[in-house]
Fold each of these.
Amino acid sequence: MLDNLILLTKVPVLNIQLLLDGLFIGAIFVLAAYGLALVWGVMNVKNLAQGEFVIMGGYFAWHLSTYGIHPILGMPIVCAIMFVFGWLLYITIIKWVITRDLFTSLLATFGIALVVQQALNLAYGPEVRTAASGFTTRSFFNGMVTIAEIKFVSFLLCIVLAAVVIIFMKRSRMGQAIRATAQDARAARVMGIDTERVYAFTYALNAAICGAAGVLISMIWVIQPFYGVVHSIRAFVIVTAAGLGNLPGVIIAGLGLGVAEQYSGFVLGAQFQQATVVGLLVVVLVWRQIQLSRHRQVVE
Amino acid sequence: MRSDQTPWWVYVLLLVGGIIAPLVFPAYTTQIAFLWLMILFALTWDLVGGQMGYNSLGNIFFFGAGMYISAVVQIGMFTDVGTYTSARGGEQLVLGYWDYFSSMFVGSIAAALGCVIFAIILGWVMFGLRGPYFAIGTLGIALSARELAGTWEWIGGGSGIAMPVYPGYPDEKSLVFYALIFVLAILTFICVRWLYSTRFALAINAIRDDEVKAEAMGIHTWRHKTFAWAVSAFFLGISGALFGNLTGFVEPLEVAFPTITFGIFMVVMSLLGGKGTLWGPVIGATVFHIVKEVTWTYLLGWQWVALGLLIIINVVFFQQGIMGWMQQKWPERFGVRVDKRMSKEAREGST
């Protein structure tokens, strides 16, 4: 462990490798976390199935690639499928939990997560898979830093996707309706917004964003039916650390988490990478609690 | 506070049933022992989740922690833990009756105390979190515990620890462990039932209904919350110790910290039976366990999908649970007098 730290200071180029890898993967985390923040903020549903949506999108992209459709070209198809899937989930399940207490939505989405991951396991088996993207890998600094072109492409795609979503939220009628509902659902209803439809659209949009993130994950990383839980936890860490409705915060926290994971994987060993995410979750929650307790009046 | 109005013959029936069940169905002794374990899980979860409103998704942490503590203590009494685990289960401890049971007793006590200490430390950290944050935080603790246990070489890492071999025959072993788990579940029930008849129950119910007001009324909320969690951890710790010895092998993912199975089962069972009631968890655990054992093998790989669907349906459409449903249907039998003029409001207030 200490050797690895010393190595990092002796060979500073390795830092560039870790930083870049962290940023490339962190950009995808940002997408999933943004979807979570959207659903959380608009309909107050804590979606524990977030990671499963990501993995599901990844599997669809992988499935399409076996028919010879390149994952990047398959992305719109995957998004469309996930959008419909999200809408259906809303009509059948989520609709009933919005008005209920928070633990209900948490458990219900946990049930969804369980069903999705087991269904994926039955359909595709427990093997770890990667969708072939056909890009090459380039090396810099005499081979000390290697960057797969696909990672860079996915980073650009992330930026494009995020920009599209943000412009959509700012400019379109539906985006405005979503933001109005998030501010005050009752007032929005009075103003003639069909909040029921807004909720359904928001949940479906979240599923589509996750699907897109999943397509990218399937190309630059690995997918497996049970890897969704970690993605869900990542999204929670990012949103909890950033706070709701704080888009710059989500971006910084997401990229930061990506970099932190790469560093912990390098310094502590790959088996600690997941433990780092979960550990960070606890740290972030405790840190939030300390922050909150400053505001809270405690009777002693 | 409404004291328990269960007729005495229910208890007699339950006790007699528990004693004769393994004699009538000797082939199912372990399954019935699991049923008692499930009842214990549901009861301890409901103490914190149902009665106090702190829905924990990570109570399984205490189960696994108790198992590991007892394993380390039991093996540490006879040999060096580090060298024993580095053999990767190549050699198991063979003990005589006296050594086996005395070490298991010491291990269980250590597990219980260790889990209480864990509960106090974790409570200090976690009980500032409210609602879903608490649920996610506790889930994080259970998940990180399994990751850490899997990488800690001294306690065997991912390949686990082999527990001492039971000195007698397998049939005798399952009967002995049946008796131990049965007694533990009964003790848990008695303890929980007693707790629910004291002021303590009023206090934690007040915390569930409105924590800020409870605090304003002079209830020391942190102390009550930690105590409730510690009670829950105490019994879960002992159950973990017994389960480790029954299985004979402690391993982080499937045995010690089965977050996705036992960890979720305890929540589902409490919700199914009706959370926040004394009998709800018992009924829920019984129904769930029997249905699961009967249908599990016929579902052929779809059992997990079925479990997920059960959670969804249970949570979304049947949240009051069996017990809550019965209380709504026949309120008089549960000692609730319904004033016809007030009944609608009262019903809305209670949900």
Amino acid sequence: MTDQSRREFLRDLATVPALAGLGGAALSVDSNLFAGGGGEESGGPATADVDEWTATTMTTRLAGENVYETAAAYCQSVYTAINEHTRPGAVTLVNDSVLEAALPGVGMIHHPIDGAVLLTRQDELPRATRDEIERAHPEGVGMDGNVQVYLIGGERYIGESVRREVESMGMSVRRIPGDDPVRVAANVDQYVSSMHGNHEDEVIVASLDAPRRAVPIQSWNAHGGDGFLWVDGDSIPAETAEQLEARYDYAYMYLLGDEDAISSEVSRDLGAYGHVTRVPDAGDPYSISAAWAGYKDIGRNQGWWFGEWARNIGWGLADPGHNFIFANPDDWRTAIPASVESHRGKHGPMLAVRRDELPTPVENYLRKFFDPTDAAPYDRKYNHGWIAGPPETISRDVQAEVHGILEGGGPP
Amino acid sequence: MSLRKNLAVVVAGLLVVVVAAQPLYVVALTLFDYGHQPGGAYATMQTKDTTRFPASDPDELSAATARAARPPNANVSYDTVVRVPEGDWRTALAASGLRAAADAIVLYGDAPVPGAGNGSSAARTASTVELSGGNSAAIAARIATRGNTSDEVSPNNVVLVGNESPEWALPAAAWSAYSGDPILYVDRNGVPDATRQAIAELNATHAYVLAPPRLVGRDALSALDTEWTRVAGSTPQDHAVEIAKFRDESRDFGWGIDDRDKVGYYNTMLVNPDRPEHAVASTNLQWGKAGPVLLVHDDGTLPAITENFLWRTQSGWFSTPAEGPFNHVFVLGSLDDVSWVSQTRSDYAVEVTPYRLQGAGMSPLDALSAVWAAFSLLGATFVYTHSRHRIPEMGDWTKLVWPLFTLLLGPIGLGFYWFAYRSRETVERDGRKHVVRPYWLQAASATAMGVGFAASTMVAVAFLLTYFGMPLVVFDGPLFALGSSMVLTMAIVYVVALLVSWQVFHVPMFEESMGLDRGAATRQSLLAVVVSMTSVSVGMMTMMWVLMMLNLPMMPGDDNVLWFGVMVFSTLVGFLIAWPVNGLLVRRNVKPGGAL
């Protein structure tokens, strides 16, 4: 080999790796991978308050000084944001005063968005929410132009000033519009369906006459990503009907209310769009939350000769080794952002509790099925519980009781 | 070279840059995106799969763990309060066994018992044992034989540790506290009399030596009157992992937590090896959520051996992530003892993940994708260099095709390159050289031409859209799916790849290699490109949709090497479908099958 041909050979040998390396390096620089940690940042986890009820072996209490911080605490527990893999895809902002307009936003938690719900005032972005968006630094939703922050509802719920402030933080924003709760839910449904190119056939149907019963159930959608729509107690709004109609073939509808909350006429009329099921024990948030945690509906959704999909909705938990979010529906602003715990980590249902009482249906459900048993030598099916909010929302006595039940009396 | 050929070379180079960028970006993420602690205000330092007890002081930490296991009013009680001295790690460590043997909580100094303030019944009825320092072997022996209830039925095991270097001894705390097997001390040079007497009194038939040979030598152990088994690692961190893995079924000893078992619920205690008191404080957690002690480095960072163990024991779900099992990590001490990044990387490692080979870390599917990507890069490098130096008579266009083809199809691309040229005759026809190939190989070579140019453009465009964010338009009505990101992405990918493949590559190639004028080349290549690329796309895009939207539980993004795996697998399916179609094009002389 002459010197020149050796040079040519080496040059050719290096060409493809050099081009490839160029691409990899460009992306790494674009993603700030070589910037390092940027030195010590101020603040950090040491700023968190800890008290003797923050953590027991069986429970973790997540709470801040106010509802905005509490929502941020859930986000911090799930998205530690130490690197690309631990950041949320996006953060979803919901209005802090109208439950019916905020609740549909919980459906945005699931993949492919993969993010937390935080609270905002209509006209002002609370400090804690702003700090948390900065800390979590969402990486952007690849399936929609790398959107980093969603606003749920029209300007009536989240004003333009909030949008401008979020944008001034360098975040890419998308608003899911809607000037009433029915429209907001329908628009969230249409948006999520557009991402998938398909409407989920299973739809949770909640009543505007009994919205608190939907609070614990909607955390299912953070986990399962099914539909969520509103009806009035005695009529089906046009926007809801339109979304049900858009389902391919049948819709499978799960009603969150007894006849008082969703009339039998509405139930019958919904039958025009597919199959209707009333979720059992739907008389109040406590009993329905326990029923839904144990509920599971499987069976045909769609099937052709080359494939089949089951409905597969509901947690269906009836053995130890599971996790629960204990939330107070009276304080829905601490409850609904906690749904993110259904989505990542320990994936459990939300159970509704009162401030000073573990309601009987919830207690019965836990005591009946979740006494931990030994699975093998030195292995038990351990439970865990999230206590959503400060002691003013769920008392320490309730936490202690929950701990005792989930612990099951301990090993002999 | 003509202007158009120069353009084609530049575009081919860009395609290599973009297609190869994704796997290399993942390598860069792995190397340089270890993690750093974000600043700002925090409302909690608890995470989805970890619980931290952030006290560094042994009094406070032991009070916190005792309370966490037996909170007041939770209807959980304990029989004994054991108070251990702060300055004597040997005595404190030896007390671990009382956690189980005497149903005790273990507290340092004056730490308050759970519910002390509100007079809980457990606090009132429990008896208290105060331990003070002294001869460690004698104290350990006394604790071990306290209320000895040797029943001749259950195996009587003892745990032996060295009385130097607490970082090697402290993993024993977890097992002793869980099982009640007592901890006894051994010198470097021999077994103290107190230890020997305790073994005799306990009627212990087996000793587990949790210490490396340089702390407790073989000679020292020869003085034991009982059988023994050594469990030890090469560093304190590795030692802790070895103890967590060890299991002796015949004698019911050891956690036996290893990757073989995907259905267990595993808890671990993350402790700084410089803080043996923290390991002792963690013994309170063994009542409730039991598990072995794992160690970080002295500076609080997470050793690879520890993190690797957490990954190995990660659980996987089958039909829904709600089914579990769920692993949990308890973090002992302040952020200086165990860093935030150590805690959060552990949190990431133990999260339940889809059994079907996805999720955090490198799954088998990821590994397959990574191996394929390595093959692709090295193969393309080989083909590019080999073709230019060993087959110099090859046409300029085919010299571009084969490296691009191999870049996507890795080993399969390399195989076809080999078949297409190895031991093939060339003939001259119409003043041009052709390679004599069997018909199936002519079809494959023609397909490679389409795949090399079109599929690499498709993958490159798809990657850029994924990285910079795909478009999404929300429509109402029955055609809403047209606005979905995958449909729009596929449409953009198809159109861009068609135009690039046609105008940049095929028109000048047909002009040159088939001696056509611009107009004829444009027309004939359009037919070839549309038919070939459409058939590739049918396979590719169907597979992309099936894998990304239906088959994989989570859609892989630009930060996951599985994205590359999905793309090359889709390309492979596209190739297989386009192969017979290209056979037709070759037969009808639309595309050359013997291009040199």
